[in-house]
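**User:** Everyone, produce a chain:

**Assistant:**
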Amino acid sequence: MLVAGVLDTLLAGVHRIVAPNPSVMTGPGTNTYLLGNKRITVLDPGPAIPVHIEAIEAGVAQLGGVIERIVTTHTHPDHSPGAAALQARFKVPVIGAEIADDGHQDTSFAPTHGLSHDDCFDVDGGVLRAIHTPGHVGNHFCFFHEPSGTMFTGDHIMQGSTVVIIPPAGDMADYIASLRLLLNYPLKFLAPGHGTLIETPVEEVEGLIAHRQSREDKVWAALKDVQRGDLDALVRVAYQDVDEAIHPIAKLSLWAHLLKLEKESSAKQDNGQWELIS
């Protein structure tokens, strides 16, 4: 069971603190990871909730370490706002990729350094490698901790739930390609931004790819069945296996699937009405 504010050691040099922000979108809360034991990298500082910032500081003190840097997987408001508070307190670099605000971003995020694919950081003598994984959002990065074989997945992969893709910053084709990219690494564990450590990483990634393909097939079938319809009409068919209370959120991923089909010249839209291209 995940308990907010408690320092949990998951693997050698890998520690987790859960933020007190549970919700439908965040599950049990956002995971902040402390990497290393003496020279600590804070990965996803989470929301700027004072008790969470205090828990991070207490966790670092419990380890007997010092914060060396702060890195972020992306700039959604449940992942990056805590960076400013920690940076002000400890005067350490904040590293992450920026993106134009689409109404869903942390507008307070002001990194001291940008982030590029394959950037590497020394974490207590081990390598932490940045992996650009657009899809959930264009500035999303996963981080591969080479000593433990752990991929920190942010919102690219969540334990126990699929990820919502919100266009235009989110892109379904990019998301699926980024899932496939993870299979190029010698994965032993997935450490998600929400939920518990995943110990069957390859099966999890392959299962998510299959799930997205299955959902795309259902979107295709819905277009064929409805023939011409808007998101409200299509979500009732393509997501009939999902609780109707979740349909407002499901419509966002449905939109992302439709845009993917449009880019592939398989579907088209006119004034919000979607149909297959025969």
User: Anything to note?
Assistant: The helical segments are 50-63, 82-90, 172-182, 201-226, 231-238, 247-263.
